[in-house]
Amino acid sequence: MHLHKAIPIGAGLGGGSADGAFTLRLLNEKFNLQISTQQLMNYALQLGSDCPFFIINQPAMAEERGEVLQPVQVDLSPYKILVVNPAIHINTGHAFQQLSLLTDKQKSKPIKEIIAQPIISWQKELCNDFEKVAFIEYPPIKEIKENLYRQGALYAAMSGSGSTVFGIFEKDNNPVLNFPKNYYVKMIPGA
Predict the structure, then answer these.
(1) How many angstroms separate the first and last alpha carbons of the chain?
(2) Which end of the chain has fewer CB within 10 Å, C or N?
(3) HEC states along 4-54?
C-alpha cells in the first residue's frame, strides 16, 4: 500500500489520523470483514486519540482521549474556509505538555452551546487553548490569525495543536492572499 500525503505533517489537521482511520474503513469494506463501527473505533483508538473521529467522519464533540464522540450540528455551507499553514511542525506531545503547564485555565460556556450561536459570536467565546502556547513559541502563527481577521474573517483559530490556522469567511469575501511562498494556503468552499 502506498499513501501520498498532501496535508502538511504536524499541522493540526488530523491528516495522519484520518489516513489511519480511513485505511481501517477501506480494509473493512474491501475484504468484507463486517467489522462494526464501534469495533473500528476501538481499533482506531489504538492508532491515535483522534482517529475514532474519522471513523464516523462527521462533526462531533470529542471527550476523554477522543473515543467518546457526540455528534453536533454545524452548517458551514453558507461560508468558505481559508486554511493557512506556515510550514511550522508542532509536536503534539510537546504541545500537550506545554498546555498542562498553563495555570490560567478558565471555565467557559460549553462548546456545544457556543457553536449553536451565529458564527460572528464565536470570536469572543470559542478559543483553542493550544494557541496560548503556540503564539508564544511561534509568533508567525499568531500573525496569520490576526491577518485573517484583518481580511474580514468572521472567525479564525488555530486548528488542533497547530500550526495551521483557518478563517471562516462570507462567500462573497475574497481575502487578499499575500502569504509567503512556503506557506500552504487553500480556500475551501463551505460544506
Answers:
(1) 30
(2) N
(3) CCCCCCCCCCCHHHHHHHHHHHHHHHHCCCCCCHHHHHHHHHHHCCCHHHH
User: How far is the C-alpha of 65 from the C-alpha of 50, rounded, in Å?
Assistant: 8
Spans of all domains in the chain: 15-71, 79-189
CB 94 within 8 A of CB 162: no
Whole-model pTM above 0.85? yes
What does the block give as the cell for 53? 473521529
DSSP 3-state assignment of 181?
A: coil
Helix (H) or strand (E) holding 156: strand 155-158
Name which CATH class applies to 79-189: alpha beta
**Taking CA 160 as the corner, what is the angle to CA 121 and CA 44, rounded to the nearest 5 degrees?**
125
Q: How many residues are given for the chain?
A: 191
Nearest one of 15, 175, 188 to 89, comparing CA atoms? 15
The pLDDT value recorded for residue 6 is: 79
3-state SS class at 141: helix
